[in-house]
Amino acid sequence: MQTLLSLVCQSITTPNGSLAHPAHFLLVGIPGLGPNTHFWLAFPLCFMYAVATLGNLAIVLIIRVERRLHEPMYLFLAMLSTIDLVLSSVTMPKMASLFLTGIQEIEFNICLTQMFLIHALSAMESAVLLAMAFDRFVAICYPLRHASVLTGPTVAKIGLASLARGFVFFFPLPFLLKRLSYCRTHTVTHSFCLHQDIMKLSCTDTKVNVVYGLFIILSVMGVDSLFIGFSYILILRAVLELSTRGAALKAFNTCISHLCAVLVFYVPLIGLSVVHRLGGPTSLVHVVMANIYLLLPPVVNPIVYGAKTKEIRSRVIHMFSQDGR
Predict the structure, then answer these.
(1) Residue pLDDT, tens place only, 68-109
(2) Contact of 108 with 21, CB cutoff 8 Å
(3) Least-confidence region, from 29-38, 60-69, 169-178
């Protein structure tokens, strides 16, 4: 057993001789499923990655090429698609490789890097969703002031602030994990690295990690979700005050795509946070919810926005009609 542990961990030691960092973590994938099932799951996962990549890339390129789409709503959508494009590339290829080859090892520092990118990109996506909610709030409640409030430079500053916030808040996480010692199992019960799961593998005090993790989830995603909810309360009130039902439906219809994106992002995130905070060993529920939280938005968002946004839909149809000639 000791020989196997030394081969798997290849760990460095702290000054007092205790184990510190393993050379690798082991990714389980989906607990309870054998290698054959994992192998066949790799194909729909590759299909999802192709849809996420092509869909989000198409949205970014269409918005870049079409000058009439250089409006706040579409610029925020381009930011969202860019984040989803990077997030899917951080998670899905490694998962597909794990399912296809069965190779579970992920190097310690690579695991921490993946963990940082997943959490930071999620925070950036949350910020962009909040910005999109603010855009819809101004467009519906103060339509005459929309152009003066959300100018091009303002949109750019919001994008940079979203990027900076995601980086600053989550940059300490890898260092907080490096200060821990890992002398128990080194098996991460997911297909990717998350802060909560790596932290649970430590045999030292994780109070700082727990407090800081709770702080950032509440101050970033928690605050964003509250402001998004408050924005939609004001939007709903303004919509209900419109004189005709047709005008109300038309106004609220502009929010449907964004509402879908918010629900797809926040419902699994809140559920995942709740089940992790309840404690206990990581179960199949944790894994499934984590997979939905990370894999679903990059796939669903371009489909929803492509179907609901007339300008993007017409551009895609035009592209295919040209290719068919």
Answers:
(1) 888 899 999 999 999 999 999 999 998 988 888 888 889 999
(2) yes
(3) 29-38
| Confidence label for 6 from pLDDT (cuts 50, 70 and 90) | very low
Model-wide pTM > 0.70 = yes
Given the DSSP bridges, would you call strands 187-188 and 24-27 parallel, antiparallel or unpaired?
Answer: parallel
> Can you name the residues that pair with 19 across neighbouring β-strands?
13
Residue 98 CB contacts under 8 Å (≥ 6 apart), including other chains: 27, 29, 38, 104, 191
Q: Using CA atoms of 171, 173, 175, 176 in order, give the dihedral in degrees to the nearest 10.
A: 150
Cβ–Cβ under 8 Å, residues 23 and 107: yes
Quickly count helices (H) and strands (E) in the chain. 14, 3
Contacts of 51 (CB under 8 A, 6+ apart): 299, 302, 303
- Pairwise CA distance, residues 161 & 182, whole Å: 35
Give the whole-angstrom CA distance, residue 296 versus residue 261: 10
CA separation, residue 27 to residues 31, 52, 71, 106, 214 (Å): 10, 23, 42, 7, 24
- The whole-angstrom separation of Cα 190 and Cα 83 is 22
Nearest in space to 287 (alpha carbons), one of 43, 120, 41: 41
Query: Is 173 in a helix, a strand, or coil?
Result: helix
Q: What is the residue-wise DSSP string for 50-92?
A: HHHHHHHHHHHHHHHH-GGG-SHHHHHHHHHHHHHHHHHHHHH
Q: What pLDDT, on the 0 to 100 scale, is given for residue 12?
A: 42
First to last CA, the chain: 66
Q: What is the pLDDT of residue 110?
A: 93
CA geometry: angle 117, 232, 164, nearest 5 deg:
25
Calpha distance 182→104 (Å, rounded) = 18
Instruction: Note the pLDDT tens digit of each residue in 155-213.
Output: 999 999 999 999 999 999 999 998 888 876 788 888 888 888 888 888 888 889 989 98
